Amino acid sequence: MPTPKRPAPDNTGRFAYDGLERVMHEKARLGILTSLVAHNDGLLFNDLKELCALTDGNLSRHLKVLQESHLVEVWKGFNRNRPQTLCRITPTGRARFLEYLNTLEQVIADAADAARANKTASPALLKGWSPA
Amino acid sequence: MPTPKRPAPDNTGRFAYDGLERVMHEKARLGILTSLVAHNDGLLFNDLKELCALTDGNLSRHLKVLQESHLVEVWKGFNRNRPQTLCRITPTGRARFLEYLNTLEQVIADAADAARANKTASPALLKGWSPA
């Protein structure tokens, strides 16, 4: 039975990507943080909602998680007597998000290297193995 | 009260990142897929487990999800009478993962552009707003 190539023995955890903090990695929160990094002075709740294509409920829920992790701050104010909510990334949030992005870049570098190195598809059937 | 800059009106969903398919975006599964893209002939279960720093149970659970989404195939075989499990990315899985990586690159481009454009931190207090 042909056995696949073994990875180098010192490669334990090579693809574990511990830097992908779950609080920032969640798809909607990744969009929220990118929006807020792109708008340093903060964004009004409704504008952020549109940029991320989220519902009121979903955005509120994710903002709460980000706020509890000290990544984002939420401010209340009034404009012509109408209540407004402003969301802004914190300095800590900014630093941690940039660290997260470094790990994300590593994922892409690993996968892109791999895709370049392995251009041919493997044969459909594996001699000596049976599908599970 | 100072209000923040508004985003351009045609930017709805600009940071929604629909291409980040949840089945591939989950942190452990992202590691598994990157490992398998880097090892085109497949990886033995135990080697994959080490590369991703996962437990048996966690790896099995994530492989099941990836298998059900037709991204990964699992093969059973024997080596010197010992049962072996081989995991391999499917051609579909490879194509979908490369698409996913394109969206991930977009996230990084957006965030890196933003980080370059907004180097200064905002003031700690927002005049006219109160913390929520």
Task: Give a topology summary.
The structure is a homodimer of 132-residue chains.
Chain A: H1 22-25, H2 27-38, E1 43-44, H3 45-52, H4 56-68, E2 72-79, E3 82-89, H5 91-117, E4 130-131
Antiparallel strand pairs in A: 1-3, 2-3
Describe this structure in words.
Two copies of one chain form a homodimer. With 132 residues, chain A is α+β, with helices and mostly antiparallel strands. Chain A has a domain at 22-106: Arc Repressor Mutant, subunit A (Orthogonal Bundle), CATH 1.10.10. Chain A has five helices and four strands. Chain A has a three-stranded antiparallel β-sheet with strand order 1-3-2. The longest helix of chain A has 27 residues, at 91-117. Chain A is elongated, with a radius of gyration of 21 Å. The first copy, chain A, starts with 21 loop residues before the first helix and ends with a strand. The model of chain A has no long low-confidence stretch (mean pLDDT 90). At the A-B interface, helix 2, strand 1, helix 3, strand 2 and strand 3 of A face helix 2, strand 1, helix 3, strand 2 and strand 3 of B. Strand 2 of chain A pairs antiparallel with strand 4 (130-131) of chain B.
